[in-house]
Write a structure and sequence with these properties.
The chain has 16 helices and 16 strands. With 375 residues, it is α/β, with parallel strands linked by helices.
């Protein structure tokens, strides 16, 4: 049978944008989701694409979508709540898997829990293959290879700028906001001396030079803590000792987020308090619209900074990438990755990172097709 691409969650905001990006590339994904009527409308919009009903609360329905060698793309979040059915199906089928998550706990589960099983079945798992966290992985890898064997540490920063009144519009979809609330009190991780170490979100704070000014960021778990040590271990930087990732989306309140990280573990230990805080967050998200404000997205620019440091803390290399809004990045990267994997496959099996799956040169070319270029 001819291998195919299946897009799970096609009728959601990110899913529909991904379907559009795929069809622009001449791909014909199978659109999958819970609502046949909405799937039919979307399929007609994109020229009569095939559809299939599947529900992540019914894992068997997701498993029935794919066979060995197929490419499964999941945009169904929050992934900590709904992501297991798709990644488990891909592992069982020996398929190639991509998802759009930005949730650090789920990323870690894919690498540590699902990765070994995928290696046994021949599946290839590429989690967080979008704005979170492909561009930063690329920026960090480019800085690491430029600095070379003297590199002891790599820092990566994610930033968004917007112009004028557009700053006041909703910049994230409801799905993204729900994902953020879901991981608010979850432990994150850092990479030090060959291993991951737990820490709260926002435990560390620093500034990056972005678009002509210093902008603050707070620490977060991401893909880079898995990808960059792998790259370093190939001989690029055998003395690499630390990989840190910083999120600069919070702007002026970044310092408050950092200070709040000191009490977050205490809140998380008391289940009633943790549930109460999460419930407050969910209530706030209910007021959000399903889709972000189009004007806000159009006026936004994303920046991804990778910096490599020597053992004494001296900066050896710095690479800044820039791109349009994050949802455009995610849709285009998923479309490029799925199309490339369908035609050429990927390198290796198990839980892969973007560099190990495609190679640095191919990844850089694919990112450029998605609009991610050196600033």
């Amino acid at each position: 049978m001819t291998a195919k691409i299946v897009l799970l969650g096609a009728t959601g905001y990110t899913g529909a944008r991904t379907a559009e990006a795929m069809t622009r590339r001449g791909l014909r994904p199978v659109l999958a989701g819970r609502d046949p009527a909405r799937l039919a409308t979307l399929a007609e919009r994109f020229g009569g694409l095939p559809t299939a009903r599947a529900d992540v609360t019914d894992p068997a329905s997701v498993r029935a979508l794919i066979d060995t060698g197929d490419v499964l793309v999941s945009t169904v979040g929050p992934f900590e709540k709904f992501g297991a059915a798709a990644v488990s199906a891909a592992v069982d089928a020996g398929a190639i898997y991509f998802d759009s998550t930005g949730e650090p706990p789920f990323i870690r589960r894919v690498f540590e829990q699902y990765g070994p099983a995928a290696a046994r079945t021949g599946a290839a798992l590429l989690t967080a293959f979008g704005n979170d966290y492909v561009p930063g992985t690329l920026a960090g890898a480019l800085a690491l290879t430029e600095a070379g064997v003297g590199t002891a540490g790599v820092h990566v920063g994610y930033f968004i700028t917007a112009n004028g009144a557009a700053q006041r519009g909703q910049g994230f979809s409801k799905g993204t906001l729900n994902s953020l609330v879901g991981v608010l009190l979850e432990p994150m991780y850092r990479w030090r001396d060959g291993a991951l170490h737990d820490e709260p979100a926002g435990a560390r704070y620093r500034t990056f030079q972005v678009a002509g000014r210093d902008r603050p960021g707070v620490s977060i778990g991401a893909t880079e803590q898995f990808a960059l040590p792998r790259l370093a271990a190939t001989g690029v930087a055998p003395r690499l000792r630390e990989v840190d990732v910083y999120l600069g989306w919070f702007g002026p309140i970044s310092r408050a987020v950092h200070l709040g990280s000191r009490v977050a573990p205490l809140f998380a230990k008391f289940e009633p308090v943790a549930k109460g805080l999460t419930a407050v967050g969910r209530l706030a998200v209910r007021k959000a619209t399903e889709e972000p404000n189009a004007a806000t997205l159009a006026a936004s620019t994303s920046y991804f900074v990778g910096e490599a440091f020597g053992a004494s803390g001296q900066r050896l290399a710095s690479v800044t990438l820039t791109a349009p809004d994050g949802y455009a990045i995610t849709a285009e990267l998923l479309a490029w990755g799925a199309g490339y994997a369908l035609e050429h496959g990927v390198s290796g099996s198990g839980a892969l990172d973007p560099v190990s799956a495609f190679g640095l040169d191919t990844l850089r070319a694919g990112a450029a097709e998605a609009g991610i270029v050196v600033a």
